[in-house]
Amino acid sequence: MITAKARAVDGPDKSFRAAEIKRRELDVHDVLIEIKYSGICHSDIHTAQGEWGPVQYPLVPGHEIAGIVTAVGAGVTKHKVGDRVGVGCMVDSCGECENCRKGEEQYCLKGNIPTYAGVDKYGEYTQGGYSTHIVVTEDFVVSIPDNIELDAAAPLLCAGITTYSPLNHWGAGPGKKVAVVGMGGLGHMAVKIAHAMGAEVTVLSQTLKKKEDGLQFGAVDYFATSEPETFEKLAGTFDLIINTVSAKIDISAYLSLLTLDGTLVNVGAPAEPLEVNAFSLIGHRRSFAGSMIGGIRETQEMLDFCGKHQIVPQIEVISADQIDEAYKRVLASDVKYRFVIDISTM
């Protein structure tokens, strides 16, 4: 077994503490990664606080992982020692079902194996990237382009793919009007990626305090959703809306902003149910959809796209001792726009 330093939490109301966790010895197709950076996702907070259901503690979160390959199993062909690599929200799947065969492992019919808070094929509880090392089967490790620094690459493994996938699937591009709801870790990536795809991007945020950033990231306009006239002015405007907010919002009000055959895609995952008025859908043949990360093939595609277009998240690098403070600041929307843990401080 491989011993890794980590930061773990022991309950919903507990602080993070230093810990040691065991990683399995390398199987024939496994890759050992020395983690350099791990992003902090809102999903980490939901899970650590038990908001999405029962959690087995102690828990080591983190599914935005960037690091260096330090060892490989005897049968590994996709990666070699010294490679710059990443691991996202899942570390395995059945590989045999219809969805896995299509390269949509995130929708594995038997359930993908999450990077943390899951149980792998060895029967072990998975622990995430707030740690110095991780062992992952080679098929779930992606390559990071040379022109993207590892600290900036980490959030791409969740925030990047979570927004790229629906933009790609629903055809964001030239001639399409795209709105992004929320300007946080996911939202600012959605703006950058949609702009690079050629879409006309508008940000819908509670206030205008991040307007300058939104326009700099590629939005052509920015509106405050706290102002009622926003929904009147923009009614029937957008072909696609990406909702990145991890809190309950008035979905029906946002559906009114779609044009004929427009789609609102939810990528935020609030703990509370979202209500939809049927008349907000049927009046203009609108769709309300959801999207969850992306498959491994699409994740690599996203990384290559970001490398080509020089798209990186805006980050704030912190030490391991600052995780609790970072969680509080995320909940207070006090981060521009993604915290990334420097694992050398572990």
UniProtKB/TrEMBL annotation:
It comes from Halalkalibacter oceani. Belongs to the zinc-containing alcohol dehydrogenase family. Pfam families: ADH_N, ADH_zinc_N. It comes from the Bacteria. Keywords: Metal-binding, Oxidoreductase, Zinc. Its cofactor is Zn(2+). One of its GO terms (molecular function) is alcohol dehydrogenase (NADP+) activity. CDD domains: CAD1. This is NAD(P)-dependent alcohol dehydrogenase. Gene3D superfamilies: Medium-chain alcohol dehydrogenases, catalytic domain (3.90.180.10), NAD(P)-binding Rossmann-like Domain (3.40.50.720). PROSITE patterns: ADH_ZINC. Residues 11-341 form the Enoyl reductase (ER) domain. Transmembrane segments: none annotated.
